[in-house]
Design brief:
Chain lengths: 246, 331, 286
């Protein structure tokens, strides 16, 4: 079920600004890959390109063995791409359970059903509760989103991404803005994710991220400066120069 | 509590000709229901899909004109012309949807306005076909199962049946998984895409269904008035319909009905006491937009909460979508 | 030959009128991102106010002044009392302007009645003028001249004055403008007032050509929209070019292909919105 990700020569510019410059990325199936770089390096843009929110000017994106460069976001999601966002973009007026149910619905043929009652479907509810349980939020299932903490919302996002049964998981700064105990919770959660799922993560929290990553890519000004195993990257003086000395 | 209310309303509706106080009021009730049909069809777009359209009267008018013209000029029967009208209107909605949905937000508003104006322009200018400013008159009401609908009471029940069927169908539809996906595209289109929902297709389908139901409302309109003119496709009419939806409470089942009732009653009854009912409508509407973004439905919710019965559904303000109505669970 | 010239002059005159209407709309949208659906109503109201002033025996100049000032004041009031309360919620603001349009339209009907009211051009502009050996209706020439004057005035305002610089900066980048201390709220009121006033003056100028009648607001608004969509929302140059383009299309269309007139007018708008939402000159819309 897991798929590798390969990005080749990806370029994207806005107006005159080259935001992504011929980026290559090679992620093996089941690998935990970390994407780091200073602010403005183009990390989130790269995620948007991989997920399909942006179209590249040139280059290729391959998921598993399929070229998805020309496919829409929804299409790629159907192929198993799931992501979390830097800013909270959950369905705010709905309870947690509903959010997870929607995540489950997205990849189910049930999403085209024009009859039946979505809110009371027992099987869907059960599955959604199970997902919430896996992130420790089952007790809050029926609470509206506005009654949850930021940390809980973050957990919910991860829950929803997992609910999509992804083969590739893109995590955009999953630890940002969290207290240290919340960070521990989420880090534990992440390390518990099945090895069947390939994970690419953008993170600034170096401790957590480094513990997590198999391989690392360093981005700067839209370009790949350095890529390799955790040790390679940590030892390389360029990394320190660009970024790690914070 | 809600069950009780529903039963009471149903009972009142079923017995209306008995207590309404004369043909005038029975006809008024029919007009309210026809307006409710308009508003409910538009609400699918505005309230559930989050796409504010200012050209919806176009589908009403198109359906009315097609049906009227076929009967008048080609001598078709009611059934055949109704089918043709609905087919034509739905096809037009499908085409318009492809064009309009390339835009969103204000652009979408303007495209739908422009498309509505094109239809209006055709109705107004192509006098040979449409009778121009004079419209088509001398149309007749259908005779379903031999029942003569000329009598107000008969037409009232006919309309009540149509309204009930349409309202029931809409209720089922929005409650379905697909309905949930429509709301998802309204609330977080980007997130919905990322979850695998085909946002464009979902929106287009909603657009087409909305146009189709607008066509149904158009048929009821032309049967009631036995007349159709370009005014029905005018921008003013589209705007009035939008008012009904926003004032009543977008994204709810009951909202458009309340909005339609407000507008039609103001139009017909208030004018007996208050000369400037349009101004009154405008003022009420602006006040609602300012202070009660969820429409009358939201106001009733809060009233209910004050009276201690039902906790108010969570409110949310978002500037990207039309003002919210109640959540799916409480309606 | 003279048919073409006369029609061209009519087109130019109409274009001039449309410019006063579209310029205000474009300014308001460019700065505040509000599609002011009551803009047609301001136009109509200005025309009615001008009519009343003329009825009282005052001159056309006074009528224009009154039309502009009264509508401008109304616009400022609407912005402060209604639109400002909905700051940040552009859709709600647009909906509010819709309601305001209803109110203004009905109030006008109430005050001035339902009959169309013809308006005479100022005395010295009635009749024809000789130009290059040809006879032209004088008032149309005057309308063209006035609209060009207004265009120049607006350009000077935006390009040479401090206010204009602030407006342009805010249109370009609102966040930055706020960050460097430009008082956005006050600017909004000023621009909305200005936009409305332009529409009001435009109504008075247009009155001798179009008359003043209930429903004029609903007739003019779509035209304003076509112009600004074609020309690009927020672009004054675009509004200028677009106005005359539409003036020509509409005038000639009315005469040569009346059945298709509306079609010809709105189809380009649809195409542009669908294919290139920025219009011919403008910037991407929110």
């Amino acid at each position: 079920m897991s798929a590798g990700l390969r990005v080749e020569g990806l370029c994207r510019s806005f107006g005159g600004l080259q935001v992504t410059r011929s980026v290559d990325l090679d992620v093996a199936p089941g690998e935990r890959h970390l994407l780091i770089g200073p602010n403005g390096a183009g990390k989130t843009t790269l995620f948007n390109l991989i997920a399909g929110d942006l179209r590249p000017d040139s280059g290729r994106i391959t998921l598993g063995s399929v070229d998805v460069t020309r496919e829409s976001t929804a299409h790629r999601a159907q192929r198993g791409v799931a992501r979390t966002y830097q800013i909270v973009t959950l369905f705010g007026r709905d309870p947690l359970l509903h959010n997870v149910k929607l995540a489950l619905l997205g990849r189910s043929p049930m999403r085209w059903r024009q009859w039946g009652d979505f809110s009371t479907d027992a099987r869907l509810r059960e599955r959604a509760l199970a997902v919430l349980d896996s992130v420790g939020l089952a007790a809050k299932a029926d609470l509206p989103l506005e009654q949850t903490s930021y940390g809980e919302k973050r957990r919910l996002e991860i829950a929803m991404a997992l609910a999509q049964s992804p083969s590739l998981l893109l995590l955009d700064e999953p630890l940002a803005g969290l207290s240290s105990s919340e960070r521990t919770t989420i880090t534990e959660l992440l390390s518990g994710i099945s090895g069947e799922i390939t994970i690419v993560m953008i993170e600034h929290d170096m401790q957590a991220a480094l513990a997590f990553a198999d391989r690392i890519t360093v981005l700067h000004n839209g370009q790949v400066v350095l890529a390799g195993t955790r040790q390679d990257v940590v030892d390389d003086p360029r990394t320190r120069e660009i970024y790690l000395g914070h | 509590m809600k069950r009780l209310l529903l039963v009471a309303v149903a009972a009142a509706a079923l017995t209306l000709p008995l207590w309404a106080g004369g043909a005038y009021y029975v006809n008024l009730a029919s007009q309210v229901m026809i307006a409710a049909l308009f508003a409910m069809s538009l609400n699918l777009l505005v309230g559930y899909a989050g796409l504010t359209s200012l050209g919806h009267a176009g589908y009403l008018g198109l359906s009315a004109y097609i049906s009227g013209w076929l009967m008048l000029r080609l001598g078709w029967g009611h059934g055949a012309s109704a089918l043709a009208a609905l087919a034509g209107t739905t096809a037009t909605a499908a085409l318009f949807g492809l064009v309009a949905l390339r835009a969103s937000g204000i652009s979408f508003l303007m495209i739908t306005l422009a498309l509505g104006q094109i239809l209006w322009g055709v109705a107004y200018r192509w006098a040979d076909m449409t009778g121009g400013d004079n419209g088509l008159s001398g149309l007749t009401r259908p005779n379903p199962f031999g029942i003569d609908l000329a009598a107000p009471g008969h037409f009232y029940f006919f309309t009540l049946v149509v309204l009930t069927v349409v309202a029931g169908a809409i209720a089922m539809w929005v409650r379905s998984p697909f309905g949930a996906s429509i709301r998802a595209t309204r609330d977080q289109p980007r997130r919905a895409s990322a979850l695998g929902f085909n946002v464009s297709l979902i929106r287009w389908i909603t657009f087409v269904v909305s146009g189709f139901l607008g066509g149904v409302a158009g048929l009821m309109y032309v049967y009631y008035h036995q007349f159709i003119s370009p005014h029905s496709i005018s921008l003013a009419n589209s705007a009035e319909m939008l008012l009904m939806v926003i004032a009543g409470g977008p994204g709810t089942l009951v909202g458009p009905m309340l909005g339609a009732t407000l507008v039609v009653l103001l139009k017909n009854l208030a004018s007996a006491y208050v000369d400037r009912w349009v101004m009154l409508l405008g003022i009420v509407y602006v006040l609602i937009v300012l202070f009660l973004p969820g429409g009358i439905v939201a106001g009733l919710d809060r009233l209910g909460a004050r009276l201690g019965r039902v906790p108010a559904a969570p409110r949310r303000t978002s500037e990207a979508t039309p003002p919210p109505g109640a959540t799916e669970a409480s309606r | 030959m003279s048919f073409w010239l006369i029609q061209s002059l009519n087109s130019l005159a109409l274009g001039g009128v449309l410019f006063t209407l579209a310029a205000g709309f474009s300014l308001i949208f460019g700065l505040m991102r509000i599609a002011n659906l009551s803009h047609g109503a301001y136009f109509m109201l200005g025309a009615y106010v001008g009519l009343s002033v003329l009825d009282q025996g005052y001159g056309f100049g006074w009528a224009m002044l009154a039309g502009g000032l009264s509508v401008g004041a109304l616009g400022a009031a609407v912005e402060r009392l209604v639109l400002r309360r909905l700051a940040g919620k552009t859709l709600a603001q647009v909906l509010a302007t819709l309601g305001i349009a209803f109110i203004i339209a009905d109030a006008s009907l109430w005050i001035w009645g339902g009959d169309p009211r013809p308006v005479s051009a100022p005395g010295f502009l009635r009749g024809a003028m000789q130009l290059f050996g040809l006879t032209f209706p004088a008032y149309r020439l005057a309308v063209l001249a006035m609209s060009i004057a207004i265009a120049i005035g607006l350009w000077l305002l935006l390009d040479k004055t401090r206010l204009g610089v602030m407006i342009r900066a805010s249109v370009d980048d609102m966040h930055m403008a706020r960050a460097i201390g430009i008082p956005a709220s006050r600017l909004f009121t000023i621009v909305f007032c200005l936009g409305a006033a332009l529409a009001g003056i435009g109504g008075v100028i247009a009155a001798p050509i179009l008359s003043v009648y209930p429903g004029m607001d609903a007739d003019m608004l779509p035209l304003a929209l076509v112009v600004v969509i074609l020309g690009g929302l927020g672009s004054l140059a675009g509004a200028f070019v677009g106005s005359f383009l539409i003036g020509f299309i509409y005038s000639f269309g009315q005469v040569l292909a009346p059945n298709l007139a509306y079609f010809i007018l709105f189809l380009p708008m649809v195409v542009i919105l669908a294919a290139r939402p920025r219009g011919l000159f403008g910037r991407p819309m929110a």
